[in-house]
Amino acid sequence: MRGLSRQYGDVRAVDDLTFDVPAGEVTGFLGPNGAGKSTTMRIVMGLDRPTAGTALIGGQRYVDLPEPLHHVGALLDAGAMHPGRTGRGHLRIGARTNGIPLRRVEEVIEQVGLGQAARRRIKGYSLGMRQRLGIAAALLGDPKALLFDEPVNGLDLDGVRWIRSLLRGFADEGRTVLVSSHLMSEMQLIADRIVVIGRGRLIAEAPVDEILRGLGGQRVRIRTPRIEDLQRALADRAAVERTAPGELEITGLGATEIGDLAHALGLPVHHLAEIEQSLEHAYLALTGESVDYHGRTPSYLNGAGR
Amino acid sequence: MSTPIVLARTGSAEWSRLWSVRSTWIFAAATAVVVLGFGTIMGYDVSGDPTGPGPDATAWDGGRFTAMFALFGVLAMAVVTSTADHGTGGIVPTLQWTPRRGVLLAARTGVIVATMTLLGVVLVAGASVVVWAFRPSLGLPFGAGVEALAELAFVYAAGALLAVGLGLATRSTAAALVSVIALVLVLPMLLAQLPYEWSVGLSARMPGSGALFLIFGEGPRDDMTTASARLTLGLWAVTSLVAGGLRLMRTDADR
């Protein structure tokens, strides 16, 4: 994506967004509600038109791809299907448009575990079954890239584990995977790299490990009874914060360097560890100022009414 | 991938899309029941009439009286099928599978218009056969039949185009149905009843008046001709399709 923007009246849903989704990795696409994730994905798929910029898949716009289902499989909105059609009928239509043999329809029905439900009308499907049907449609053309918007919505644990292995398998085969989710624990498990956007703008783009370490600001926690001596020694080398009696958190130096320094100064060290954040904490730190829609905690839950 | 191949595949998919939902079968069956039912009533009526409908009358003329019912069935089916994708959100997978919107427009319009035209013509022909069965002396002359059915085919094709265009332009089944009924039935009748020359003139330029003239040979003004009726109906159909096509081609794929 290069300089992608989309304006809806006064609202800039996507604002000069530029990032790459490399092959062979699972790229997680994160952002608060209204950040522009779904709009970005819709623009990539040619459903919405960008106000500026381009989104290319293998160097081509989606609309220019011959037999697009062989290039990209996308799940954007699991509810976006005719409820009066059977699951199998829905998939057969998709297969016909791209010259895919109808036996492939039966293969993907089995692959996603729809089985006998494929003969039923979609209006009788649960959200999870619709999700599986949407994934089946995305897999029809055995595509080189997958683009999933909230794929685990409505799936049971078995389905979530299946999605996890599916995405991992695709990436391991050298294919491209872009997946958005609000489930940070899930994203931490499946994503190799993360793209975070807020208010339509790129906030961060980095491998998951780097995001967890704080985007280049690796944090280390150390405990020593001679806290003043260590703080003085570190003051001109890194950002130091006293977080508890006898405890410092240091940003900008690794645990090895800090340990060596303490050893050189003859300081006893009772605890030394790199602080690994959860993706949820890292995400909240990154998007804190970009959240447009905040919920309010009822007073009876925070004790104000007691 | 060449455009003809993509168009053929998309046309095949549109055909499946049309017939893989129950509403299409229900509309077709309901239209058939109404048209053939009125054919039966017409046939029963002429069979019991000792003087007969006239020396030049054929069974095709009896069938022609059912043509308006077939037209409303055709219009309703075309509206429902052309708006279904937007009403259900199905436009999202549709445009993922066929991102070339011009191809989708051509395939969708072609399949709906061809199917609706064929359905209308076959049902009216069936109604004519029913009338003939009640009174074989009326006859079913081949030449008169081709002429009558060809004119009806034009009416149904133009009507289906009008409905598809309005469906694509409004993206709403309710709005498109109201628009079609207003243009084909309500406005032509209403304007023709007003005591003004301009309103009668305007009524003659409505698509419903064009269709009515081509079916029954009568219109709100005496100076209407077959050519003017065809031109009126054709222009409305093309204009509507252009409006719907532009909406499909140039705007986001919203519900």
Automatic annotation (TrEMBL), chain B:
Domain of life where this protein originates: Bacteria
What are the alphabetically sorted keywords of the record? Membrane, Transmembrane, Transmembrane helix
**Entry's transmembrane regions:** 25-44, 64-84, 105-132, 152-169, 176-196, 231-249
Question: From the record, what ranges are coiled-coil?
Answer: none
Q: What is this protein called?
A: ABC transporter permease
Q: What is the lineage of its organism?
A: Bacteria, Bacillati, Actinomycetota, Actinomycetes, Propionibacteriales
